[in-house]
Amino acid sequence: MTLATLSDVLQPALRGGYAVGGLVTLGWEDMRAYIAAAETLGCLSELRAEGKIREIGCTHFTAADLLDSQAAATAQGHAMYPSVQNYYSLLTRDPETNGVFEACVELGIGFVPYFPLESGLLTGKYRLGQERPE
């Protein structure tokens, strides 16, 4: 994947202004089959330098993915992802035991929980004996 094709992937967000106002988050499972971490970070650094995006983040990264990305960013002189967004809630606590929290601390990366309220399960949205809400 080149800058042109990665930029094409981001075009809907860029046109809609979503990237300019906030954080562009890429899922590594969508990218790893097509592109190396160094190339991804390089392309995103160019988009940031052009003012097309303000910041980047990653989602569904393992601890190894974070460490690999940091090594690639350091080797190429690119900025690292400042945040990772993974599945985490009171019921699903994998980042506590799979090394992601430790990697975040080691690398100075923020952690953003994905589905922290289990899609409403922990809010009382769903009640035993009642139909599921829309």
Task: Provide an overview of this structure.
α4 crosses α5 and α5 packs parallel to α7. The protein is an alpha/beta fold. The longest helix has 14 residues. It has a domain of 93 residues. The chain is elongated.
Defining traits:
134 residues; 7 helices; 46% helix; 15% strand; elongated
Give the topology:
Blueprint: H1 3-16, H2 18-21, E1 23-27, H3 28-31, H4 37-49, E2 55-59, H5 63-76, E3 83-87, H6 94-97, H7 100-107, E4 110-114
Parallel strand pairs: 1-2, 2-3, 3-4
Helix pairs in contact: 4-5, 5-7
Multimeric organization: single chain
Biggest sheet details? 4 strands, parallel
Order of helical and strand elements: HHEHHEHEHHE
**Widest beta sheet: strand line-up:** 1-2-3-4
> Outline, from the CA principal axes?
elongated
Number of helices: 7
Secondary structure: helix percent: 40-55%
Mean pLDDT: 78
Question: What's a quick, concise take on this entry?
Answer:
Helices cover 46% and strands 15% of the residues. It has 134 residues and is α/β, with parallel strands linked by helices.
